[in-house]
Design goal:
The protein is of the alpha/beta class and about 250 residues long. The chain is built from 9 helices and 11 strands. It has a domain of about 70 residues. It is about 35% helix and about 30% strand. The protein has a 6-stranded mixed sheet with strand order 7-8-9-3-10-11, with helices on both faces. Strand 4 and strand 5 form a beta hairpin. Helix 3 packs across helix 4 and helix 3 packs parallel to helix 5. The longest helix has 16 residues. It is globular, with a radius of gyration of 18 Å. The termini are far apart. The mean pLDDT is about 95.
């Protein structure tokens, strides 16, 4: 059985003359929760966008469950064929910070749309899957609502349900609570805690330090496009290097 869900080796990304990811290597095992922290502009979101192929890498290697999505050859990044990438795409889901729901679709249609149109899941099966997820997330009475009729916290829970409906092996969260007020933040973090209890493999870019400390198996601190320190929450919070200590101190203060 493939123990590593995700492997990233020497990932690089530039935008013009600006190097956003200089050299990132990490791997995530099945059932592991990894939080990525660091100041704004450190490359955290770009890391997620490259890992989920919303952005092409400029160098390095990207592997899901032993299948190579991208690798470096003669100084260039080469991607797998369209057919292979389509298959690899099914391994992961992504939850954005600003929900990205279709405004003209009901909650139910937002969730079943991709399983039906992309994965060719029979409509009835997709619907049953969606209803089960909505019950789990406390939203079963909202399935006929439209996104504008929901609170921010409810919209984010719908976007989590939408990602889970594709039954991914790993879920990426990009600052899932940054668009929410503290009360609504709590309800989304509760859902992520539940997923962790169910051993869902997750990478979470977050500025919620206490949450990262409680929930993560491992924390990665990024700055200037490289990983400056990584370790267990215990190691990061009780024995941080000088830069991490300064960063965490701002949140603790």
């Amino acid at each position: 059985m493939q123990d590593k869900v995700l492997e990233i080796n020497h990932m690089k990304k530039r935008f013009g003359d600006l190097t956003v990811l200089e050299d990132i290597s990490l791997s995530v095992k099945k059932g592991e929760v990894v939080s990525v922290i660091g100041p704004s502009g450190s490359g955290k979101s770009t890391l997620l966008r490259c890992a989920t192929m919303l952005e092409w890498m400029d160098g390095g290697e990207l592997i899901y469950l032993g299948e190579r999505a991208a690798y470096e050859e003669n100084g260039k990044c080469v991607y797998a064929s369209k057919t292979e990438l389509k298959k690899i795409h099914k391994h992961f889901g992504l939850v954005f910070q600003n929900f990205n729901l279709f405004p003209h679709y009901t909650v139910l249609k937002n969730i079943i749309d991709a399983p039906v149109s992309v994965d060719k899941v029979p409509k009835q099966e997709a619907k049953e899957r969606a209803i089960t997820l909505l019950k789990q997330l406390g939203l079963e009475n909202k399935m006929d609502c439209y996104p504008h009729q929901l609170s921010g916290g409810q919209q984010q829970r719908v976007s989590i349900a939408r990602a889970l409906a594709l039954q991914p092996q790993i879920l990426f969260f990009d600052e899932p609570t940054s668009a929410l007020d503290p009360e609504l933040t709590g309800e989304v973090l509760k859902v992520i805690r539940e997923l962790a209890k169910q051993h869902m493999t997750m990478i979470i870019v977050t500025h919620e330090m206490q949450f990262a400390r409680e929930l993560s198996d491992r924390i990665i601190f990024m700055e200037q496009g490289i990983i400056q320190q990584q370790g267990t929450p215990e190691e990061i919070f009780t024995a941080p290097n000088a830069r991490v200590k300064e960063f965490i101190g701002k949140f603790a203060g």
